[in-house]
Amino acid sequence: MNVVSLTLDDLYRPLKAFIVGVTGLDPSLVIQGLPNRTAMPAAEPGFISMTAVLQSRLGTNLDTWDQTDPEADTATAELHAQVKVQLDCYGSISNSWATMLQTLLRDDVGCLALAPTCQPLYTGEPFLSPLEDSEEQYEQRWTLEAELQYDPVTSTAPQFADTLSATVINVEEAYAP
Question: Model-level pTM?
């Protein structure tokens, strides 16, 4: 059975803890984005939604297995990936939250907080993206895109051959035009 060592949920946990630590929000007010059939939290005191929106490959896989074990039962393929996470900050102080997150995700503070699961690469600029709610009122929403690197490892059962059987064939006879 193939297994992946890190999932997006594994990225959300340290990112959520980081956001809670920076903003002082109650953890229930930092949510994973795009929930279905769930009402948004109240606009005041505000909340932050985290949504992974894009994943890109950063390099070629790093394949490993125990080359000293002729009976190796696990091989791994490590992917170096970049994930764009959209952070939507809602409420009257949403601009302040977006500014703080942008600042600290470009700082050693963000690197230490997210290690060892992932690392911030850079962030975009916060931008105003107002939202019209069900009562046809505009809600303050500032959006920030954070780029993170993580390195999920997929474990698989390798296939090895320790013997080879070769047969000589006449190609011209076997594959005549």
Answer: 0.82
